[in-house]
Amino acid sequence: MAETTLSGEETPRIREMEIDDFPEVFHIGEEVFTVEYSQSLYRTWDEFEITTLFNSDTELCLVAEMGGRIVGFALGTTVKKHNSPWMYGYLVWLGVRRDTQKGRVGSRLFHEIRRRMVEQGVRMIIIDTSADNLAAINFFKKQGFDDIQEHVYMSLNLTRKARKKAVKKP
Predict the structure, then answer these.
(1) Contact yes or no for 32/105 (Cβ under 8 A)
(2) pLDDT for residue 168
(3) Pairwise CA distance, residues 90 & 126, whole Å
(4) End-to-end CA distance of the chain
(5) 91-104 per-residue burial string, b: 16 or more CB within 10 A, e: under 16
(6) β-strands 87-96, 61-66: how paired?
(7) Are the C-beta atoms of 30 and 75 separated by less than 8 Å?
(8) Half-sphere exposure (CA, 13 Å, Cβ side) for 136?
């Protein structure tokens, strides 16, 4: 029987991702990381993101289940810098189905991945998101993140340059 909250809502069960979960995790990512969400971020979401992280840090690849259905995921990794005593955690992806985003699924996923990172010796967790993604920024502030650093993200559309050069040829 599923655990429920005082308000009668089902509490998501957080567990390690399994290979059979890949398609569902991928589809949730496709649903969440769209061009409307971020004009450049959606281009980096693909099945290799899941398999690469799963193969390197299985214990930091988590899913949230409710009613036997995967409703969210968190994919992370750790980074140990040469000549540094610190190990960093990097929460690479956190996605929750749109219809369950208000149900604390993201918070539960974050708390579990944080717990696991602390067990591994992580001293700082890093995330990144678009500067205009206020929903994500607010979510991570609620999780205790501060020290917001803005960075510049640039892209070069090579197909546009190639078309211009192709047009210039005699």
Answers:
(1) no
(2) 57
(3) 5
(4) 72
(5) bbbbbbbeebbebb
(6) unpaired
(7) no
(8) 18
pLDDT band at 101 (very low <50, low <70, confident <90, very high): confident
Q: Which two tokens stand for residue 40?
A: 């450049």
The CATH code of domain 13-168 reads 3.40.630.30
Q: For the chain, where are the alpha helices, taking DSSP H only?
A: 22-32, 47-56, 105-119, 134-142, 158-168
CA angle 28, 65, 25 (to 5 degrees): 25
pTM: 0.81
Q: Kindly state the tokens that stand for 87.
A: 């190990």
Residues 62, 110: Cα–Cα separation, whole Å: 9
- CB of 74 within 8 A of CB of 112? yes
As given in the structure block, the two tokens for residue 18 are 């399994």
pLDDT digits (tens, 9 = 90+) for 113-140: 999 999 999 999 999 887 878 888 899 9
Enumerate residues 6+ apart whose C-beta is below 8 A from 64.
Answer: 12, 13, 14, 70, 71, 72, 73, 96, 105, 108, 109
